[in-house]
# Entry
Amino acid sequence: MSSTEDIRIGVIGATGAVGTVTLALLAERGYTSVRALASSRSAGGRISFGADELPVEETTAELLAAGDLDLCFFSVGTDTSRKLVPHALAGAAAVIDKSDAYRLADDVPLVVAGVNDEALAGAQAASSGQIVANPNCSAMQLACVLKPLHDTAGLTRVRLATYQSMSGKGDEGMEQLRATAPAEGDLALDWDLIDDEFSEEWKLRAETRKILDLPALLLSATCVRVPVMVGHAQAVWVETEAELSPPAARRALEAAPHVQLEGFPTPGRAAGHDCVLAGRIRRDPAAERGLVIWVVNDNLRKGAALNAVQIAEALIARNLIGAADRG
Ligand code: A2P
# Structure
């Protein structure tokens, strides 16, 4: 297995909302061979990396394809990922991509660490180029909670309403919130429409089905952006095949990796926290076998950068990334 020092890492989108958290997590974990890449707009500047700084380099096709990177974290948006990821693969890097460009492709694992790591079993060695997709932030926190409930009692139906923070839109969203008094803000309509649904609602269903390997799971969502800087909240109504009491649900969630039970989780509590917070678990009086759960998560950490780093750690543990193949 490679050590953290050996692995040559590129963070693409290093100056963005997710990229800066990715750099912080890599510095905390002792990775030392890290390059910060962004657009030509930020190239030439410097960016914090733990107690140090890194130069910001322009992301070019040549740089990515040169074979100098073992692992690339992409947090750049869908169109830019589509354009740049193939060059990183040509350079034989393993790619962990945060955009929705590859998430639903059959041959690309869509992984929530601690939920479906087994999907990485199909991953090829980095030397042949490998993409692992990092899910949508809302699908990620939902899957962390649904998986243990499904394993315990079998899910039959899931309905949810989301209250998503502005940092989910990246730096642009955070700037918008800083510049807008919440009472004046018209913050909800920032997703495309797919038929009658927001793309975010459609993604939540499609990605959750893939992550949990439940292709027919009944799931509907209403997604709303709220004037909160960091931390997505969800009210989730689940129905199950077998009886699932609130105490049994609490036990299942307590035993789940990356989930922490709280009385009343809030975005303020979740921001900067590594776990998905779940609370207010109670019977749903409107369903025969149903529960209501309140779920809050730091969308930039487990919802994005932390999960990407955990995917990398899982690949490293499986010897799928590293310096072994370097000629
Ligand atoms: P830059 O700061 O140079 O524009 P966010 O999602 O927070 O808006 O961040 C988007 C990130 O993606 C930023 O780091 C941004 O860099 C980067 N980015 C945008 N377009 C490109 C591109 N064509 N090549 C490389 N990085 C890009």
